[in-house]
Amino acid sequence: MQLKVCKPDPMKPTQNVHPTESFRLSCPSDAPSPNATGQIFVKLDGIHGTSVLDARAKKLDVGNGYCAWILGYFGETTPPCDNTSNVLGNTAHFLNDTSKGQQIFEGALSNDVVRVDQISGKAVEIRDIFGVTHLRGVIP
User: Fold this and answer.
1) Does residue 10 sit within a domain?
2) How many domains does the structure of the chain reveal?
């Protein structure tokens, strides 16, 4: 009996060249928006070398401003939230796309972070302008 070696067809990629992962954010036990929901999508385009970090939150307290933070651990101290133009009613949307010249997060380039796979395992928190966490999760 002779074994055959199957070679991958170069015209049919064996893995997705545009993998997208998503995960849900959860509310801490003391969250001021207990009904809030959120999800984060991360996408790495290996062909073009670009990354997308897309965070969306719903059912947040109306009339407040929100920021999404990439942190080393939950509860890490951050400067005040000042970018709240992405809030409409009780919904917030945070989108960073390196194909449009944006950084994954503020200061990412100075820390040599250029792709979403480099922030895997980091904590994410959506906080209001007073620094209170409404949603949190971990980047896959």
Assistant:
1) no
2) 1
Cα torsion 28, 104, 54, 24: sign: negative
Mention every residue, 6+ apart, whose C-beta is less than 8 A from residue 78.
Answer: 67, 69, 71, 127, 131
Give the max Cα distance, the chain: 73
Q: Considering the domain boundaries, does residue 4 fall inside one?
A: no
Is residue 5, in this structure, part of any structural domain at all?
Answer: no
Which domain does 43 fall in, by range? 20-138
Kindly state whether residue 108 falls inside one of the protein's structural domains: yes
- pLDDT of the chain along its 140 residues, tens only? 444 444 444 444 444 444 678 899 999 999 898 999 999 999 988 788 888 989 999 999 887 888 888 899 999 998 888 766 677 778 988 888 888 988 887 777 777 888 888 888 899 999 988 899 999 999 87
**The whole model's pTM is what?**
0.77
